[in-house]
Amino acid sequence: MSERLVVIGADAAGMSAASQARRMAGPRELEIVVFERGGFTSYSACGIPYWVGGLVPERDALIARTADEHRARDIDLRLHTEVIEIDVAGRRVRVRDLGSGAESWTGYDKLVIATGARPIRPELPGIDAAGVHGVQTLDDGQALIDTLDATEGKRAVVVGAGYIGVEMSEALINRGYEVTVLDRGVEPMSTLDPDMGALVRTAMCGLGIEIVGGAEVTEIRTDDSGRVRAVATAEGEYPADVVVLGIGVRPETALARAAGLPLGEYSGLLTDLSMRVHGHENIWAGGDCVEVLDLVSGRLRHIALGTHANKHGQIIGANIGGGYATFPGVVGTAVSKVCDLEVARTGLREKDAHAAGLQYVTVTIESTSRAGYYPEPAPMTVKMLAERRTGRLLGTQIVGREGAGKRVDIAAVALTARMTVEQMTALDLGYAPPFSPVWDPVLVAARKAVSAVQRRG
To answer: What's the confidence (pLDDT) of residue 38?
Structure first.
């Protein structure tokens, strides 16, 4: 008799888990049912800003595998169907068909929770007004595009200057909007230290984006029809024909909380190395709804990235399908861009290291993407943190032009291997004048960090 696997959520983690489980277990061994409240599956949420901005010509380019393709692989995928309750003791879920409103129960032998994350919507007057958008799903992206196409005015306010806020501000500039970014931080990109965030601010201002730091939004103001007309802060009012929320995301774990499943400090589900939910042998979770181990600080974090979600799904599917796989943790690597400025980070920021009780040194160097004598060398700034006594690499941030961003992968590998900055200086990296100076910028920073560690004893 076959078992039934129920998966809640049909994007990266959920469909990776379902697909991997199907590859490892035949239809006679495992029935797979996937519930998805939206209308799309297996898509790149990271690509939405580029679709909104016109760099990606059509929505379907972001879809890696359609619902029909999944169904052809013996996966019972049900779109526009929302799971509204998990009965852990009864091993069943209650679902609602969003078209008809009909509700029913579906039993499971094994359950995967891949509910993702939701955009943060602060409880402010007017936050639900017409013209105010969060951007997390393809449906969200389509709704924003529809608003932009129908709006006569060309004034946009982006609330928040993290990855989403920065990328969406560029997308709106590309669509001909005047863009103001309101952020609580002094500098944009709080995932960087403020001195590196200042470099991002300079680039954004160069695009014509107005950035207001230290701005606490107090109200979304509307006109007589209930449509957004301005965003208010304690210091002033900023006219807006459309508002995009780029404040960040939180784990979507309301279902899990109601079911009594264990949640962490950031409200993400807690799992073991196999992605099995703590204390529940037949329930797994992955993607943006879980917390993961930071291999540098040793603490749990919530990091919403498609790279992790796909890995989680592969691991869950392997374990459910009879194999064995684990997810050891992350080092916090991320990369983005503003126009031609590339922004990357991995490991700890200064405040992260301080919070973890680590003593550290920092160094910052200026270099170029290729040999100085080769045509068009692009500038970059590299900041590196190392543990004071041991010299262990703690984190790296890179801001620069072409060729800067992906250099962060060197540091990501070094962090995973727990290398010291001195060990990094001996790395045998590729060299040719079109690609790098003789000493790669990351290794220049490592050399300087070695000297800083030695000076500080």
So the answer is: 92
CA 32 distance to own-chain centroid: 27
Other beta carbons less than 10 A from residue 4's beta carbon: 16
pTM: 0.93
Residue with token string 């955009």: 119
The Cα–Cα gap between 185 and 231 comes to: 17
Q: Is 205 a catalytic site residue?
A: no
Among the listed residues 46, 205, 289, 339, the single catalytic one is 46
pLDDT tens digits, 164-216: 999 999 999 999 999 999 999 999 999 999 999 999 999 999 989 999 999 99
Q: Which amino acid is at 75?
A: I
Element spanning 233, H or E = strand 228-233
Compute φ and ψ for 230, nearest 5 degrees.
-165, 160
Contact (Cβ atoms closer than 8 angstroms) between residue 325 and residue 318: yes
- How far is 54 from 314, CA to CA, in rounded Å? 32
Beta-carbon neighbour count of residue 293 at 10 Å?
16
Q: What does the pLDDT look like over 314-333, one tens digit per residue?
A: 999 999 999 999 999 999 99
User: 187-205 burial by CB neighbour count: b if 16+ within 10 A, else e?
Assistant: bbbbbbbbebbebbbebbe
**Which structure tokens are listed for 385?**
């943190």
Q: Which two tokens stand for residue 233?
A: 């802060």
